[in-house]
Design goal:
elongated; single chain; 2 helices; about 55 residues
């Protein structure tokens, strides 16, 4: 039960520090995430094409 209590206290401390991102921050995070997903998809597509070639 002590570990659970410690975990709860840590979660409350993190929750207290959190802040809602501004619209500009949200847009930037969304763009970076979309670019990352696109790059991973492109790499996967290229690898699948190379495998299908052989």
């Amino acid at each position: 039960m002590g570990k659970l209590k410690t975990f709860y206290k840590k979660c409350r401390r993190v929750w207290a520090v959190l802040k809602k991102p501004t619209k500009q921050e949200f847009i930037l995070i969304s763009k970076v995430s979309a670019i990352g997903i696109g790059i991973l998809g492109l790499i996967g597509f290229i690898i699948s094409q190379i495998v299908n070639l052989f």
